Amino acid sequence: MIRRAVIILLICCGMAAGKSCPAGWSQYKNRCFMFVSTERTWAESERYCISMGGNLASVHSREEYNFIDSLFSTHRVWIGGCDAVQEGHWLWSDGTKFDYTLWNPGEPNNSVLDCPANCSTPPEQIHTLQAILLPVLALASSMISRAVLILPICCGVASAWIECCPKDWFPYFERCFKFDSTPRTWIDAEQYCQSIGGNLASIHSSDEYVYIQGMIHKLTNTNPRTWIGGWDAAQEGLWLWSDGSKFDYTRWIPGEPNNRGGAENCIEMNTLEMMWWNDLPCNLARAALCSLS
User: Fold this and answer.
1) What angle do CA 153, 156, 158 make, to 5 degrees?
2) Which end of the chain is more exposed for a tag (fewer CB within 10 A), N or C?
3) Does residue 226 contact residue 215 with C-beta atoms inside 8 Å?
4) Where is the C-type lectin domain (predicted)?
């Protein structure tokens, strides 16, 4: 089995001027990075990063990539890009827009599956500072990212959050949600949510889920089957949220997820009378629930 390393990235989105990164982290502008040499699969690396309060690193400029590359020397390193849900539709695991690439010539070619590692040395004729594809079950080191979000003053208490939600979004504590009835595949729904500033929704408690269900019913007078942000296309059974948050709550139908047919990698809500969750093929068309924090 191919062995690879990982890097941790801590995104300090609201870091005040002069603030430094925690001990052991390296700062670049308003972001903090850490290299972790322990070798894991891509999905295991992402889960580890989430347990650290972060995600595998997203990269948004050549300058940022050069800085990250300086943090390690001889390892290939997982970063957060993956197209396991739908071939050629790349997402960052932290939910940010996939707006920068630095592919090795001839990549991505999908000859070795779906998630990229970056390379800083030329073993196996890999070019410095460019990305290649590796099998998602290969082992590699990691680069993690974590957002430190400082909310606007109006968002300091739950009762004031409604002032911070955009028009046509509904609030729930420190989050905003938007239901869109247009049927889309899961990847198209995620890209739609990103286009309006969010991601397909993650859900973290029973109270939150019941509230969301009630708001959708109020808007539609029905309980439409709807995509939310859960997926396990990178590694079967290792569920992740597309916004990069911790997968810490489920509402599965008894007997689910069952990955029937070997291709059920995305989550819909409002399945059957109890309006539970079900795993489905990601290419089916459903309504979308977006969220932003």
Assistant:
1) 135
2) N
3) no
4) 28-119, 172-291
Q: Quick check: do 5-145 and 155-292 share a fold?
A: yes
Token couple for 31 = 């972001």
Cα separation, 31 vs 20, in Å, equals 10
Q: What's the burial of 248, exposed, middle or buried (CB within 10 Å: 0-12/13-18/19+)? A: exposed
Instruction: Give domain 155-292's CATH number out of 1.20.1440.230, 3.10.100.10, 1.10.580.10, 3.90.380.10.
Output: 3.10.100.10
- Contacts with 106 (C-beta within 8 Å, 6 or more apart), sequence order: none
Domain boundaries in the chain?
A: 5-145, 155-292
Do 132 and 117 touch, CB atoms closer than 8 A? yes
The closest of 259, 260, 240, 242 to 250, measured between CA atoms, is 240
Residue 291 pairs with which residues in a beta bridge? 177, 199
Distance CA(94)–CA(114), nearest Å, equals 17
pLDDT tens by residue, 28-65:
777 777 788 888 888 888 888 888 777 888 888 888 88
What CATH architecture does domain 5-145 belong to? Roll (3.10)
182-224: pLDDT as tens digits? 999 999 999 999 999 999 999 999 999 999 999 999 999 999 9
pLDDT < 70: residue spans in the chain:
1-20, 73-75, 109-141, 143-163, 274
